[in-house]
Amino acid sequence: MSKVAVIGAGKVGEIVAFGLALKEVANEIVLNDIIEGVAKGKGLDMYEATPVLGVDTRLEGSTDPAIIEGADIVVVPAGSPRKPGMDRMDLLKVNIKICRSVTENIKKYAPDSMILYIANPVDVLTYSAWKISGFSNNRVFGMAGVLDTARFRTFISMEANVSVKDVTAMVLGGHGDSMVPLVSKATVGGVPVQHFLTDEQLDKIVERTRKGGGEIVNILGYSGYYAPGIAAAEMVEAVLRDQKRVLPAVAYLDGQYGFNDIYAGVPVVLGKNGVEKVLEIDLDEKEANALKESFTHVKKGIEEAKQFL
């Protein structure tokens, strides 16, 4: 029997839950949200879809945090967007306050669980959840790289006019403008991507990947949720099914890539023990320097957050 809890039943949270239900990854999926009726209503609506889908997963939601009791993994998309008049530090303070409340409930009701953080700034909040929880660092990790990589692969597929199934790629670093799409590692059916696209095309794809979230916001007026939600569901599946997937994740660095005591986007092996290994890979000089710069930016954010922890 396996149980997944999702704290934050907004658009991302509901896609995480429904995506996992479609995969039949867990016997039970629960949603928790502070807004009355949201988690309960969405949970019931999704549960009523299971007979049509032919899946045997129980879904329910509640405002009571006790609903997460006994969860094997807790996914946390709960967070506050920036509001008018707020600067970056104001937003950070608010989201760390939310992180503390959420994490204290996880410690109380699901002390043996793993934590998958989604809310932004994800690198900083994953670090904060680790500190507040006291869990071992392999049990606390964040989602950003799977999403950013999905966008990178999509844009390569679109530009090269090839199946997205054949595009292999990876995005590392912080989740934001400093992320590092690894052009040197990107392939189409095992063939280096440079055989399909010019340097100019690849530069445009890298920039579009970095701005991928903003592109959705500019079109919709709010953040995307299908890709983030399904990306998180893939990570949960890797853990619960002990798949030993090699995926980019926000993971703890203890000397890897020359950095200590930070959470940042790196390739990892995901299995039943959470982050089972952080993989250090060789990069060309340009990408290595860009990754160092990205990690330095993340480190600065974490140092700023420490005053609120």
Q: What do these coordinates show?
A:
The structure is a single chain. By secondary structure, this protein is α/β, with parallel strands linked by helices. The chain folds into two domains: 3-142, Rossmann fold (3-Layer(aba) Sandwich), CATH 3.40.50; 145-308, Lactate dehydrogenase/glycoside hydrolase, family 4, C-terminal (L-2-Hydroxyisocaproate Dehydrogenase, Chain A, domain 2). It is built from nine helices and 14 strands. The strands form four sheets. It has a six-stranded parallel β-sheet.
How many domains, as an integer? 2
For the secondary structure, the number of strands is 14
CATH class of the largest domain: Alpha Beta
Rg for CA atoms: 19 Å
Distance between the ends: 35 Å
Q: Point out poorly predicted stretches.
A: none
Strand order of the largest sheet: 3-2-1-4-5-6
CATH topology (fold) name of the largest domain = L-2-Hydroxyisocaproate Dehydrogenase, Chain A, domain 2
What is the succession of H and E elements?
A: EHEHEEHEHEHEEEEEHHHEEEH
Identify the notable features of this structure and list them briefly.
globular, L-2-Hydroxyisocaproate Dehydrogenase, Chain A, domain 2, six-stranded parallel beta sheet, Rossmann fold, 44% helix, 309 residues, three-stranded antiparallel beta sheet, 9 helices, alpha/beta
